Amino acid sequence: MLIDAALQLAAEGAEVSVREAARRAAVSPGAPFRHFSSRDALMAAVAEEAQRRFRAEIEVALGDAPATDPLGRFRAFGLAYLRWAMCNPAHFEIISTGRYFAHGGSTEVTRDNAEVIALTERMLADAATQGLLRSTDLKRIQIAGRALVYGFARMNLDGHFPRWGVEQDAIERMAEGVIDLFIAGIAKS
Q1: Are 170 and 116 in contact (CB under 8 A)?
Q2: Closest CA to 54 of 86, 28, 17, 16
Q3: Buried b / exposed e across 48-61, counting CB within 10 Å, b at 16+?
């Protein structure tokens, strides 16, 4: 209840406090402090829930991608990231910026982020081993891919696409096309 209330406050762009989350959750102002000693503790819990949902989206997408196709898996991962960010803008905002949550404030989120990075490293290493990549600089490819999906998600969240002539119902197709263009650029032809 409190986590949902804090998320709702963040989604509205409001200042998140334990007391305001308690008010929204219709619990006594002091009750949340038994679970969350501070705003940071509450936001860490919100970030952990956001990260859990993000990982679930990734796992579903990778479950549908063939294990023997690392670039297909990398594509599925990118699309899952974008789909999740577009469908969960408040969660994305919380775990992708420092506005609500200090990223080092949760060992669970830190560990999970490291696992996500390692997952993308493995996909790219598998692609390199299979001779599928133009470049051997896997770190650069990984960072470029992250910048691409993060930037696309940020553009969506900030409402940029109408200015670029991309209507709301075409954003997901545009996301697929952008990821496909990126993969075509890193793959050997």
Answers
A1: no
A2: 86
A3: bbbbeebbebbeeb
pTM as predicted: 0.86
Residue 180 in tokens: 């496909």
CA–centroid distance for 28 within its chain:
33
Instruction: Report d(CA 164, CA 127) in Å as an integer.
Output: 33
**Count of positions (residues) in the chain:** 189
* ∠ CA 17-12-26, rounded to 5°: 50
**CA dist 96 → 25, 86, 109, 152, 188 (Å):** 25, 13, 11, 13, 31
Best CA proximity match to 72, nearest among 123, 119, 115, 116: 123
Percent with pLDDT over 90 in the chain:
58
Using CA of residue 44, residue 83, residue 175, residue 160, what is the dihedral sign? negative
Q: What is the pLDDT of residues 102-146, one digit of tens each?
A: 777 788 888 988 999 999 999 999 999 999 999 999 999 999 999
User: For position 100, what pLDDT does the model report?
Assistant: 73
